[in-house]
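Handoff note, outgoing to incoming analyst
You'll be picking up this chain. Sequence as last confirmed:
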Amino acid sequence: MSAQHKVFKDYRVFEYTYAGRPLKIEVGKMAGLANGACMVRYGDTCILATATASAAPREGIDFLPLSVDYNEKMYAVGKIPGGYLKREGKPSEKAILTSRVIDRPVRPLFPKDLRNDVALVLDVMSVDQDCSPEITAMIGASVALSISDIPWNGPIGGAFIGMVDGEYVVNPTAAQRAVSTLELTVAASEKKVVMIEAGAKEVTDDEMFDAIMLAHKEIKDLLVFVNEIIKEVGKPKFSYASGELDHDMFDEIFAYCETRVMEALDTDDKNVRDARLQPIIEDIAATFSEKYPSLSTQLPELIYKIQKKIVRRWLINDKKRVDGRAMDEIRPLDAEVGLLPRTHGSGMFTRGQTQVLSVVTLGTLSDAQKLDGLDDEDSKRYMHQYNMPGYSTGEAKSVRSPGRREIGHGALAERSLVPVLPSVEEFPYAIRVVSEVLSSNGSTSQASVCGSTLALMDAGVPIKAPVAGISCGLITEDDGTWTTMIDIQGLEDFYGDMDFKVAGTHKGITSIQMDLKIDGLTPEIIRAALETTHKGRDYIIDEFLLKAIPAPRTEVSPYAPKMVSFKIDPDKIREVIGSGGKVIQKIVADTGAKIDINDDGTVCVAAVDKNAIDAAKAIIDAIVFEPVVGETYDGVVTRIVKSKDDETKDVGVIVEYAPGKDTLVHISKLQDKRTEHCEDVCRVGDHVRIKYMGIDKKGRQDFSMKDAD
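Most recent structure output, in case you need it:
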């Protein structure tokens, strides 16, 4: 039987130059059974993007079941995965964060009534560090969805903006990213910005705005190219069974409960609101279930939309917020430090019914997190983790491992604070911060930024400036008018159009994360959000953070390890470690200190007891110490050396004059007169003094006991 050669009749390649590098999109060759697929090649970075949808909607749900998976393949950078199985396991934190960055701009552009399962899979198959796989994957996701038959209101494009020596750089190379003061990822459609994710070293509002506008300009040019692909190979979109609520049912039930729901929502207490709503929900179910048999499965969505209609109407028509605040008013705030006596640092920040307790732990640099990913970063000394247990929202559920949202919020807080941390040389510690959400009613990620600033200062970490975070919400109207509001609480997040989170210092922005429920933002809205959040964080820093703790403590906690960092000659590292690690293990055992040695000769010695640090450092100093001619040293006789030819004759004694360092003192140098047996002068275990005479004729160190003082 002869094999038939496969011919890719629909294979097409589209080419574009993006930020000076070749971008190629191949369709019609790979993953032919997906609804839409493409191979995106940006430089040598290759991403296979596939979009697949189920044929029928999922029953009994009131949301779009979309999954976005960015899969890192270790072969993409020529690595074999670590661990016993030697295969990729659960996604890395970087992969989860990238999945979220792509999910956020893609999700709002699906039809609101689509209930079919949609899976967007982005496989990273080759990585060129100069061509961002994250941006490549975002472009691939947009193209795969756009050319598929899945209903979607794209396309979008993505761009990464850096700032090197005060100049903006589009899609910077790895070398440029290493020195950039800005890490900005923007996704946009032709007309609007749909996603912003940023980390920055205190850039100004104007600098950030200009960078966002530059990204949008580059994306608009890119979308001309993408639209050509769609025109050439795009499929007609399939029809689907709408998951929209029955309008007659909604109107009838809304009229029935409108007044009571308004009264229930009119409170600043989430618990009171939930308690007021429960009997109304039960009444609706009892009254209308017979007339509308499907009500039991649609009730959660129905209640959501009833509340949404009322809250949005209040905000748009009356400029009324659920808790009675003005549109530019922040909820009541409180800040405390030093709540936990045995931790290294703690701080609690409360904003309305949102409350976060952050706790700092200091460790040696060997405690830094090891990373195994596709980029060049192999470790990080600052780790920020975020936990949101069920009790924080009044739910009775067991504690589970962190989900994507918790990982994302922890990474956002981490990104917000990294720019103000001291360098390793200034503060040679690994730092772990855990933000525990104790109560949640909106913007917990930004509360964790504030609480962590307090905790770091309480721990004695000399941060360069306090960082505060605040969110800005948005309500848009059909005629294009809009209104922003500061410090959104839960209902305003659920029923509003935007959650624009900005963290920073007085000087500038350190992070941004924007979540949207609409098709994008205009430049005017972005500018207003930046101005609003800047005023908010200035107020929080001055009126609460700095009043709780005016400056970082001058000393670390008595329960935190003390740290001394110093340099030794890299050629001496082997002597400090010793054969099989025997020397350094003995130092640790004898002193109780923890010792880390870097390849450049940097030694970090840590212990809670400073005396242990001093003892360990003294030993290391002795090991790396080079003897000076004419100086005298204390030592211990460890053995007597016999002649190889005649074991009855002594050659001399071995004296250890520093841990791991010893020398032969010849029998002729033991005393001024002739010596037949070494034991006539000293025995094993004796403490002796020896003098360094220099290098002898054979190039060996020459020590003398008889010449010692």
